[in-house]
Write a structure and sequence with these properties.
By secondary structure, the protein is an alpha/beta fold. It folds into 2 domains: about 120 residues, Glycogen Phosphorylase B (Rossmann fold, 3-Layer(aba) Sandwich), CATH 3.40.50; about 160 residues, Rossmann fold (3-Layer(aba) Sandwich), CATH 3.40.50.2000. The chain contains 11 helices and 10 strands. The strands form 2 sheets. Strands 3-2-1-4-5 form a 5-stranded parallel beta sheet, with helices on both faces. A 5-stranded parallel beta sheet has the order 6-7-8-9-10, sandwiched between helices. The termini are far apart.
């Protein structure tokens, strides 16, 4: 392994979940190169989650990748982002670089694990935990406990998934039969603190493949993940996931944006929304809430 002093991690895929999936790699680099200054180039609102991270010296939200390379002058660059000529800009800088963490992915390996595997193969890190962890202040965590209060084993529903194709249609029905904790609008850091409090009282967070649910996982909460167009094998959380319509012939685990439903949420198998999400029943979710492991739901 080399002795790097200035490490730049570029994560410009745009999603909160994308940033959280590379976070174990960021932490692995910080732990391996203790004297190095680690800078993460990413986007808001996810950037706010790193601002008290002990392994991250600086968070930049600049849109000028070339300028950031010149300013930081890294001797190691790790990037998840292939767009906008980023690999070429990194290559021109001339330092050690890993600019394609998406290369040759197995269909049955979770993305954070794949990132770490590639960095190990490059000789940059050793064995490490693939679970993301977000670091908040003690004051923030206390405020989260105050918001959640004394309720025991609450269920928090993350109804939105960022894209219509990932939305589960039965949240209202589920809310009628479980003790739902409704959280007010808040920042990501405040939400993370509430998720930590939910975890501390035995609560569960239910939601699809989306950044806020990945944040709940990073705060130690038990998660029931609802997956349709994306797969549990690649994108799942822990072991409490449900995969809707696993036999769908249109699903492409390694090319999700090329699926006919991805951008429009128009499903080739159903007229009223994604059949894969509708295939996950309230009963399926109740089974996970009562302690069942990962499962598959079909029509």
């Amino acid at each position: 392994m080399g002795d790097f002093r200035r490490i730049l991690v570029i994560e410009l895929l745009g999603g909160i979940g994308d940033l959280l999936m590379v976070l174990p790699a960021v932490h692995a680099l910080g732990r391996r190169y203790v004297g190095a200054r680690v800078t993460v180039l990413t986007e808001e609102p996810g950037a706010e989650l790193l601002r008290t991270d002990p392994w991250v010296a600086e968070v930049s939200t600049s849109t000028d990748v070339r300028g950031e390379l010149a300013r930081v002058d890294p001797d190691l660059v790790v990037s998840t982002s292939m767009h906008s000529g980023i690999p070429g800009l990194v290559a021109a800088h001339g330092c050690r670089a890993v600019t394609d963490l998406w290369r040759n992915p197995p269909a049955d390996q979770r993305i954070p694990v794949r990132y770490l595997e590639i960095l190990r193969a490059e000789g940059l890190i050793g064995e490490t935990d693939p679970t993301p962890r977000v670091h908040l202040t003690a004051d923030e965590l206390e405020r989260g406990r105050q918001v959640v209060g004394d309720v025991k084993r609450p269920v928090v529903l993350v109804r939105d998934s960022g894209m219509a194709v990932k939305r589960w249609p039965y949240f209202d029905e589920l809310a009628e039969v479980v003790p739902v904790l409704e959280l007010p609008a808040m920042s990501l850091r405040e939400l993370g603190a509430c998720f930590a409090a939910v975890a501390s009282v035995g609560g569960v967070v239910v939601g699809g493949d989306t950044g806020p649910v990945r944040l709940a996982e990073a705060m130690g909460a038990r998660v029931v993940g609802l997956f349709g167009p994306t797969t549990v094998e690649r994108y799942g959380y822990g072991d409490g996931n449900l995969q809707g319509l696993p036999e769908c012939p249109h699903r492409r685990p390694l090319a999700i944006t090329e699926q006919p439903c991805w951008w429009s949420a128009r499903c080739p198998l159903a007229e009223d929304g994604p059949a894969c999400m509708a295939a996950i029943s309230v009963r399926d979710v109740l089974g996970r809430l009562s302690g069942g492991g990962a499962g598959r739901a079909s029509v």
